[in-house]
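The data are quoted verbatim here:
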Amino acid sequence: MNKAVIDSYLRNLLGSLLGAITIVSTSSGIASPIDYGIGEWLLVANALWASAVPTLIRWVNKKDPAFGLVAQAVAASVTTKLEAAVEEAPKKATPKPAAKKPAPKKPAAKKPAGGGSASPNQIQ
């Protein structure tokens, strides 16, 4: 069993536990889990075993590459392919950078002709 399966189960367990406590508190009118009796804790316990169902379904699924029974084989295959790709990367020639074209020159800004009227702040 790998770490991903355990992590997934713990997430499902925490979600189910919080949901079960909330629902039992709401339906029974008890304000705090400290005040629960045997019956309320049995309801919470049912939610805890039920939280294992989604993780077990993924673990039994042979096609699930993360948790399935073939997860280790898939992981080994992917690792082999990655290692081969890393070895091939330096062997490939790096393409030469394209020659940079000089930036086109901007036309010089034209000065306005002197025939216009002068503003009142300008001295002629």
About this structure: The chain has a mean pLDDT of 77. The radius of gyration is 36 Å. The CA atoms of residues 75 and 81 lie 10 Å apart.
